[in-house]
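Researcher: Please predict.
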Amino acid sequence: MIKIRKATKKDIIPASDLVIKTFVKFNSKEGTKRGVQEYMNHHDPKKNLDQIKQQFPKYKIFLVAEDRKKIIGIIRGSESRIGNLFVAGKYHKKGIAQKLIKRFEKIAKKRGSNKIKVRSSLYASGFYLKNGYKKTTGIRKMHGLKLQPMTKRLK
């Protein structure tokens, strides 16, 4: 059974590991070699644990999806912006990301937000479109990665 819950400090390393593994598998062809490496280094707890721990409290919303106490998905950001949304590959197309995003949006709205922005990976842009997000510009490059800026008005 899949459970969505607020992240805790004990989730930092497994969440970071999930980000790295999922990014490598699905997003690593969406940027320059240097951009991809910098992203991975930034999120790798083996190389950057102190900074990752410092960043943890800065996420105003940080949720994890668990299956049998194993983290299989994460979403984090602020009331107005999704920073990361990752789901382990074997759980794709099973509604996990949709559950995470819906819970994120509910929390953001409850805290006063009426709009959420995201810089989507090219891989995930179709998912965001299906969930009511709209492209705001063309594809952008940021830190060597290709991103699709998107936004959604909360109702």
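Model: The helical segments are 12-26, 33-43, 45-55, 96-110, 125-130.
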